[in-house]
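Hi C.,

You asked whether I'd gotten around to modeling the 42-residue construct. I have! Everything is below, sequence then structure, no commentary in between.
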Amino acid sequence: MLWSDPENEPPKELRDAQNMLRRLGLLVALAMVLFMVVSGLR
C-alpha cells in the first residue's frame, strides 16, 4: 500500500447497504427455518 492510499473505510452509504443486506439475509434464513418447521408439523 502506498502512503497516499485512502483508508480502508467504505463510504457510509455502502456500510448502510451492507447492514441492510445482512439483516435481510438473517430475516430470510429465519423465515426458511420457520417454514421448514411449519411444513414438518403437517
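If it helps when you're writing up: Residues 14 and 42 are 42 Å apart (CA to CA).

Thanks,
B.
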